[in-house]
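dude i think i finally got it to work??
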Amino acid sequence: MALDVLGRFAILAILWGASFLMVLRVVDGFGWIGAVSIRSLVASALLFTIAKFKRRKLEFSIGYFPFAVLGVTMVAMQLIGLSFAVPRIGTAMTAILVGAIPLFSSVIGRLMRIEEMGVAGFVGLIIGFLGIVLLVGFPEGEVTGRFILGIIVCTVGCVAAAFASNYSKLRMSSVGSWEQVIGAFFFGGVFTAPLLFFVPFNRSPLATDWLNIVVLAALCSSLCYVIYFKLVARLGATKAISVEFLVTVIAVLIGALYLHEAITWIQLVGGALVIFGCTLILSLFRPAR
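look at this
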């Protein structure tokens, strides 16, 4: 990969890896719906304001529907999955499931006829899904309803994120990364805001809670997704989203070292199988001709 691509991968890995810890703190103050809705609206508003300040021309002539699709899948469903799962299954476990997004992306990309798959890809799929089984089936503690529900919601969010990446590549390749982020997070915030009537704030947010959510929105949403959509346009959906491998490593280290989260060796094997399966699908180790 070119140095600029590697640099963007590094930025995304560090910020998104650290975001799991920030999500945990934001959910504590705003609840799992408030954390998504407010984060989304702040991210969209910040990037729109910066664009106007820089006199950057924004083009939304493609219509509202594609942005609404990204808002539902990439923003609402994915961020709800993360915000709901982190307090229930832990940052490390959530991050490992997020590491399976390239696996889902590859399958969806083939179904949408964006990408092709060879024998190594099918082997990678089998290995990857075996890894997911090990991840879900062998946790450190008791398998409770709370744990299973967290797994299900997080997995749905991961699949939605994988679909969104492919949809962006297929339908929105002519749309700028700034426009995609502004539009997607706007609709994501609008769609999730009414849910606050059913899932209100956990408590009255403190000044530090507001600071955390603004930082989370500015860095991990506005900045990161502008970088990410540029990678999607350049590399394709599945290769771009393979940055989640690095995100998973950083998030698991933070969960283990900072939050002292427990994870079994079987789950570590499962995570390794997921990553190995994805490398086969992505042909990352294809020998040079």
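The chain is about 80% helix and 0% strand.
im so relieved honestly
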